Amino acid sequence: MMNPEDFMRLALEEAEKGDAPYGAVIVKDNQVIALAHNTVKRDSDPSAHAEMNVIRSLTARLKNPSLEGYTIYTTGEPCPMCASACVWTGISEIIYGASIEDLVSVNQSQINISCEEILVKSFRNIKVTRGILREECIKLFKKF
Hints:
- This protein has 144 residues and is of the alpha/beta class.
- It has helices at 4-15, 40-43, 50-62, 80-89, 100-105, 115-120, 134-143, and strands spanning 23-28, 31-37, 71-76, 93-98, 127-130.
- It contains seven helices and five strands; from the N terminus they run αββααβαβααβα.
- The longest helix is centred in the middle third of the chain and has 13 residues, at 50-62.
């Protein structure tokens, strides 16, 4: 049985494959369902964040825009765009490592609005767990 740290380690491994150190893993019933990383530069697509990529790939595979009952693990706190995508899909929980404030402190370009600020103004009740493997996530962001 995998625990949150195991899933975040997979997100960290996935992040290493991307243009920037963002990795995302979607889990349901303690099973990894989808993984993705940032491909903004590769795809010349400013919306190709890890969270957007994993959501797009999974909803396309499921042929369903709803991800209710799923949990997303991300190395960095979802930006306003990615947090909004989580709202629109109905993801049940967001679990992240480094906060937007952590990311700003290591010179990652960010819109300094927490995902909780987006979620509280939405029509969904999405659980947020922060700081899983935070130090490992920050270390990865410092390398880039």
